[in-house]
Amino acid sequence: MSETASISAGIAARYATAIFELAKEENSLPTLETDLDALETAMGESPDLRSLIASPIYTRDAQGAAITAISQKMGLSGVLTNTLALMASKRRLFVLPQLVRALRGLIADDKGEVTADVTAAKALTKAQTDKLAASLKASVGKDVKINMAVDESLIGGLVVKVGSKMIDTSIRSKLANLQNAMKEVG
Predict the structure, then answer these.
(1) What's the pLDDT tens digit per position in 90-131?
(2) Nearest-CA neighbor of 36 among 87, 101, 91, 92?
(3) Whole-angstrom Cα distance, residue 185 to residue 182?
């Protein structure tokens, strides 16, 4: 991990821990989770929001006023709104994507869940997703939440990442392995 990414992750982790503890004290973890969904969607869909978060051209006051107005318009909880305003005043909004990831991790740990990033050649049906989640739960020992992505270049099969483990059963990977084996023989 690069030094800058490590510093950003550390900053985000401290804010995430504070937000998580406050939300847990107030028994508002479900609200926090809903807020994170809304915030993540907004960051994904709005280039202006991403610019506000990342660009150094905005003053602390401008960032603070804008992020507070956005938070209130989105109906985010007071804890998250106040934290975002504090982050803006400290010029720390650039860690917002890492903050969301860190908070999701803390909430998942609290629920006894683990997140699996699954990439498939085509979208899985609900039944296939449920079967995969049950299979992963049996091997991991925790409830599994699946983040689904589609990559047609896989040709077929799945790539599953759970924590530091990765299982690649894609046809693309098998063809690459076969091609390497053939190069070694010839």
Answers:
(1) 999 999 999 999 999 899 889 989 989 999 999 999 999 999
(2) 101
(3) 5
Residue owning tokens 């006051």: 61
Q: Model-level pTM?
A: 0.73
**Where in the chain do CATH 1.10.520.20 domains reside?**
3-109
Q: Give pLDDT, residue 3.
A: 72
- The predicted model gives 69-84 an average pLDDT of 95
Give the domain 3-109 fold.
Peroxidase; domain 1 (1.10.520)
Query: ∠ at Cα 137 (27, 105), nearest 5°?
Result: 40
Helices (H), the chain: 3-25, 29-45, 47-54, 60-74, 78-89, 96-111, 126-140, 171-185
Beta strand 113-120 pairing with 143-150: parallel
